[in-house]
Predict the structure.
Amino acid sequence: MKQLGSALIISLLLVSNSSSQWQPDVRLTNDPANSWTSWNNAWCIAASGNVVHVVWYDERDGNYEIYYKRSIDGGSSWGTDTRLTTGNGYSGSPSVSVSGLVVHVVWMDFREANYEIFYKRSSDGGSSWGADTRLTNQPAYSGYASVTVFGSGVHVVWHDMRYGNWEIHYIRSIDGGINWEADTTRLTNNSAASQFPSVSVSGSSVHVVWADTRDGNWEIYYKRSANGGSSWDADTRLTSNSAVSEHPSVSVSGSVVHVVWEDKRDGNNVIYYKRSPDGGLNWGADTRLTNNPGVALSPSVSVSGSVVHVVWFDNRNVNYEIYYKRSTDGGINWSSDTRLTSNSDFSEYPSVSVSGSVVHVVWRDTRDGNAEIYYKRNPTGNVTGIENIGSEFPEAFRLEQNYPNPFNPTTEIRYHLPALSVQSGQAGTSEVSHVSLKVFDLLGHEVATLVDEVKEAGVYNCQWSTRPKDGGQADNVQLSTGVYFYRLQAGSFVETKKLLLLR
């Protein structure tokens, strides 16, 4: 077994230092009415590059409507509030997801005399919005939707009463939200209550979790589709205890699925975590994330590579505050709790999202006498670069095929760098020689430099985006549809692969 080298030590130091870089709270709303984030663990924040999108609902206009706000500089400053719904009925519990410039929002709405699920999209990063689309149309109650997106596949889950009891339903769009399937898919079928689903997607694998009373008490259940929502596997029971387990949240990166929920098995509400390393086929043991006499509620999870981020609210300090915890090794080990808020009133119902190195959190807060939406960020909280923080370095150099491929506008390239001692069979440091990763067109012209520095041994992810940044400036030259080559050079090692850009 090879010993950990300086790469891991430096990485762990960066982890330790970065966890303390949370910036001050930012108040996003300022009106005399009450504003709410969703309390069913649907994400109210989503980030892509430097653009951060936040949705909530408030009653400033006499009834609850859906509102939207964005930052185009990674959360440093914020634009004005945008009202997304206009009607006489209640609109609430929104959820947001983003892929490139396309932003997707779902919510529950009472405009049709009963609660239905509605959808809205922006194709220009939140600058303008299309018309409302009604996703459900039946006389029973439909509510508490959750949305996720991968490329042009948009997936929505919710619970409704059309069959006389609460069941989980699903609908999808395969063209980025322009068109939707004519009917919904019923994911659960039992006489008990199935409620408050959460959905996450990676490639063609769609993962759904919810709370269910079919076993006499509330338990967490899971279901997956391996073909983009066309068909679904059987239900999997994730918890098995005599206490209440509810309000789950799910996030996936590659084949590793992460689930968090609130659980009363220990006498008080605590946060638990569970992971599947193989895309939902098998599951590890439950991991207790909180350990204090307070009540911990409504966790939200977001994952980036092997870094898992969890937020929740609890009252260990008398009033409810927002707390944060993370794992940098895919959920195997966890940091201590970090308290994100400190005020004399309630801070509750948080959501978390990650983009690049930045961790974004949004929540509902009553410190100002009425409920307002607040935001906080850690600009260095998402550890990027080395993913395999473990007991061994890679055995050899390796350049992987980019994913997705074909792509537009963003793709990910992974590469492996072994330690010098592995390469030579002699004692040495974990530092490798200078590393470059570049992209070339068919004529051999360089169009992008993705890496140009000395790197420690490890497994790295690198994103290449051809999307214009806000303000109209491109990341690099404007590229057309076609084949390009990306080349990794590290010392004497050189490997080149093809990728395909589709405009």
